[in-house]
Amino acid sequence: MAYRFLLLERFPDDGVALVRLNRPEVLNALSLELMEELVGALEELDADPGVRAIVLTGNERAFAAGADITQMADASVVRMVLVDQFQKWDRIKRIRKPLIAAVSGYALGGGCELAMSCDMIVASETARFGQPEINIGVMPGAGGTQRLTRAIGKARAMEMVLTGRMITAEEARLAGLVNRVVPVELYLDEALKLAREVAARPPLAVRLAKEAVLKAFELPLSAGLEFERKNFYLLFATEDQKEGMRAFLEKRPPVWKGQ
Amino acid sequence: MAAYETLRYEEPEPGVGWLELNRPEQLNAFDETLTRELQQLLRDLERQEGLRALVLTGAGRGFCAGQDLKSIDPAQERSLGRSLEERYNPIIRRLRALPFPVIAAVNGAAAGAGMSLALACDVRLAAESAFFVQAFVRIGLVPDSGSSFFLVHLLGYARAFEIATLGERISAQEALHLGLVNRVVPDDRLREEALAWARRYATLPPRALALTKRLLQKATWASLEEMLQYEQYCQEIAGRTEDYREGVAAFREKRAPVFKGR
Q: What pLDDT, on a 0 to 100 scale, did the predictor assign at position B261?
């Protein structure tokens, strides 16, 4: 399928797919149409058995510099509620395969929220994260107040949300927002490498493990522990569990079937 | 490039930039115009196509006398913290971030923030009559514009402390002995020696120089483990350049390499 605002690349040997946001002329502003395409593409890759991990990126200058303000400036409350553009974002949350953001340059507003919707973030040294919505009279609307707070804690999230101040890649790493920071020349390679590592693991275990980690944001501890335990036991119904443990005991590398 | 009132910039040779602070009557002390213009020029130089090395020096007999105290109205309440944030710190950050070597050609007095400016360069070449002063303490202030950082990293704590607290004049020879400058040359040789150094950089592989600069700057604060990782990243990048292939080929063919910055 052809996309207007995305570039899609597959690395079938590794089980990895790469999705690039491709509106460079507007720093990848996240228009309604782009988000529609993006969510559709991610769902398609999620359903594709050849794909075991997905990398989402922009370009060197910008991951995404926010929502498309031109589409919102004159909108009424009624229109905002009817269109309910951020509801689409919930579908990203439901992607079951590991999703890695490769961020260089600006990840602002919706761009920051999109990066945080991914499971892991690899950042270039030039990356800047921020929720500057306050400066145009609104506030984060696609998860910024919730995900940022969970990622870096109340005090730091509050400062970013209330002042709109951007943080550097290194600050983001120290705060726990990103996994690693690498030179700009290598951020995409590093993200793909991480994706390959995950894609080389048994897919069912990866899927249930991701699901369990995400539950930590939704459930109280006792319910979360219960959920985790059930997923753990469930994996004993898979061939990959048998293979993994047998290979471990026989001191040989396992061969995963995804069964 | 924009016209400047308090700076002179030229490229005397291909790939070599020559930047002079140009308020000679005031020993190139920083006033509002000079700090603003220097910020602007450094921003432009960061993206200057084909530039491979920069020499920073002062016009006339001084290198840079730091903040121009005469340009401050003592009657006016003034936040020095804000002045650093808006005027000086951006200069130091931009100077350090330039993706090519920066050589300070210290031709005379380098005092206060002027000394900081020299220390922020990658290497220092001093004329025999040049001297350094951490003048801050003499007027009741503390080292700024990076001096506290650069002094400790260049000299170790005890010597840095002595220099920052006594605020005594340090001659070029003493500075050489301390390791504050790389070389000292006769006054009338300064320009030629600085150009010769910059010229060498202009023939070396630019990406390797830029990456080395990033590595060594990070090494002033990072751990060995972080540096091993970062060397791995930088070598990966260097290993992908055409210049690396050219370097190896020239070595094998026993000829001089021609580096193109790709």
A: 87
A183 touches chain B (CB under 8 A): yes
Which tokens in the block code for residue B13?
């040779």
Report ipTM (2 d.p.): 0.82
Q: Can you tell me which residue has the tokens 């210290």?
A: B106
pLDDT at A68: 83
Q: Verify that B152 and B226 share a domain, yes or no.
A: no
Cα–Cα distance for residue pair A217/A227, rounded to 1 Å: 12
For residue A59, which amino acid is it?
Answer: N
Domains along the sequence of chain A with CATH: 6-199 (3.90.226.10), 203-249 (1.10.12.10)
The alpha-carbon gap from B97 to the nearest alpha carbon of chain A, in Å, equals: 12
List chain A residues with CB under 8 Å of B237.
183, 185-186
**What distance in Å separates the CA atoms of residue A194 and residue A209, rounded to the nearest whole number?**
16
Tokens found for residue A36: 């529609």
Give the end-to-end CA distance of chain B in Å, rounded to a whole number. 25
Q: Kindly report the CATH number assigned to the domain that includes residue B211.
A: 1.10.12.10
Query: Helix, strand, or coil here: B206?
Result: helix
Evaluate the CA torsion angle B117, B121, B124, B127 in order and state its sign.
negative
